[in-house]
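pasting for ref
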Amino acid sequence: MYELYWGLKEKPFENTPNPRFIYFSSDHLEAISRLTYAVEERKGAALLTGDYGCGKTVISRLLFEKLTPDKYETALITNPLLNPMALLREICFQLNMKISTRSPKTLLLKKLNERFYENMNNDKDTVIIIDEAQAIQNLTAFEELRLLLNFQLNDRFLLTLILIGQPELREKINQFKQFKQRLAIKYHLNPLNEKDTEKYIVHRLEVAKARGEIFTPKAMRLTWEKSEGIPRVINNICDMSLLIGFTKKLDKIDRGLIAEVASDLDQ
């Protein structure tokens, strides 16, 4: 709607996990590096946490894209609000395994173990990524996931399990000491600082083929203050600012407009 007015090829601040728009702050670089290391070195299990809207899902999709089918078989679970048995079945489904809905747990585990060995023999690694893992309500599901990590050889794990979620996920895992000890890699993704917020805004505008300055420096600083550095909130503020700036026929997005938009969003 406003793209032509601002000279953009597409909307730069959509809240979708599009890896093209990801801005790699030092925190994001560290997060993707640790998760990649966990997979490539077969570390068994890794945990990534971060506040709501900080970019965890984008990182999970970016990692998923890096895991090419010729080297990895990957199960991406995006809705883990399931009981333990349903979670195991969903993992099987994501690994393209034909499992009856009436299959008992012993059979599911047996079939999973066979698939892990089959992948290994075909020079493939198995990776299970569970996004929004804090949504797991039945805590015994963590015990089922821990049991999957028992499928290993003397010198390597047969799968890599990556859990991604909000900070309360750590609190849930802390209740299972044996599972917590299996997490070889842990990282917490923080909000963007002021400098990274400015770079984030500029980067997304550049990806959208912006010509020239659209947001003034003071506007970007206030965006950081109002959003507290959370990318999802930054996107909301910037997107609405572009829309209202278009309707008001402004030349640039200034601090006053950011204040107005942020106030409306708070209400």
